[in-house]
Amino acid sequence: MNTEKKTGNGYFAVIDTETTWSNAVMSIGVAIAECSTFKLVEKKYYIISPEYKDGGMYSYVLMTKSVKLDLKSSRPKVIEHLVKVLKKYQIDSLFAYNASFDYNHLPELQSYKWFDIIKKAAYKQYNPKISENADCCGTGRLKRDFGVEPITRLLSGNRSYCEVHNAVCDAVDELRIIELLGYAIEDYGHAQINLEKKPRTIRPKEQRAVPKLPKPTKHVPEESEDIIEKRLIANCKFAIGDKIRHAQYGCGVVRKIEVMNEEILLLTVLYEAIGISLHLLPADEKDITLIND
Known about the structure:
The protein is of the alpha/beta class. It folds into 2 domains: 11-191, 2-Layer Sandwich (Nucleotidyltransferase, domain 5); 227-290, Beta Barrel (Thrombin, subunit H). The protein has helices at 75-88, 99-105, 118-121, 148-156, 167-181, 225-232, and strands at 11-19, 25-34, 40-48, 71-73, 93-96, 113-116, 243-246, 250-259, 265-271, 275-281, 288-290. A hairpin with a 3-residue loop joins strand 7 (243-246) and strand 8. Helix 4 crosses helix 5 (167-181). The N and C termini lie far apart (50 Å).
C-alpha cells in the first residue's frame, strides 16, 4: 500500500446526500480536507426545502444536537452556496462512498471529478484489513458488508461504531475512511466514476462486397418488459413488478431498478406499510425475499 502523501495545500471534498421516500435530495453534507494530511478544515450542512418535509428513511436525524445547520433553503440556493464554498478552496475533486448514488442525485455538480471511496475500501487488493478468506467477487470486492459502517469498524477496530445517516456526519466518517486507508489522493485515479470519454476513431470503410445474410424464417416472439429488464441487468434476480418481502418493512412491489455502477444496483420498492424505499444491491439483498405467486 502506498501511504506517502504528497505535500501541498490543495483541498478535496467528501460529499453525502440523504433522500426522501420519493428519492428527492433532502440534505447534503460536505467535509473539506487537506489533500496532504486529510485534516478536516471545514464542514457544511444543508437541508433542502420544501423537499425535506416529505420525509425519508433518515428524517429523524436531519437535526441532532451535534450538528450545525449552515443553510435551509431551496435547492438552487443550496447548490449556489455549496459551489461558492468549493470555489473558496479551489476544489475540483469530490469523493463519496458509493459515489454514483450522490453523483446521479446532484447533476448540478457533475462537472467536478467524482471519486468512489468504495473502489479502495471494499477491495482486498487495496484494503489490507480485508481477510484473505473473505467472501469476495472475482474483482476482489467484498460480496457483503462493505457499507460505511462495517468498513469503518474493520479499519478502526471500533466494533461499537454506528453510522448516523445524517449527511454531514456521514461525510466526516467517510473522510475518516480515506484517512484510515492511508492512500494519497493521487492514488484514487482508478476510482473516478466520470472519466471523460475519448472520441472514437472512425476508420474508413473498406471497399469490398459484404454478403447478405439470409432472413430468418422462424418467427421470434416478442419479449415482455419484465423479461427484457432481467436480461439487461446482469446478476439481478429482481424485475420491475416483482412482489417482495423485506425483513423490516413487510411486503412491497419493485417499481424501478437502476444500475449505479458495474457492481451496485439501486432498487426502488413501493411498500404497503411505509411507501417508497430504496435499497442498494447486493448489500441489502439479505433482507429481501422474492414472493412467488
